[in-house]
Design a protein that fits this description.
alpha+beta, two-stranded antiparallel sheet
């Protein structure tokens, strides 16, 4: 595989299906990783990365002609 597959091979320590195994990849999974770069958009407490970002750095739109 490519770089992502090699990273996963070294970083994923344990994988198990928690619910709905009949849904295949759409099931609910528990994946234990170590030293795996990830970007958490919404954490387990409901904190939303983009909402927090907009609170600290408002977006400015520039109209092009």
């Amino acid at each position: 595989g490519g770089p992502a597959a090699r990273l996963a091979d070294h970083s994923i320590k344990h994988v198990e299906v928690l619910e709905y195994p009949e849904f295949g990849m759409e099931a609910i999974w528990n994946i234990e990783v170590e030293d795996f770069p990830a970007f958490i958009i919404v954490d387990d407490k409901g904190n939303d990365f983009f909402t927090k970002l907009l609170e600290t750095k408002p977006v400015t739109f520039i109209r092009s002609s």
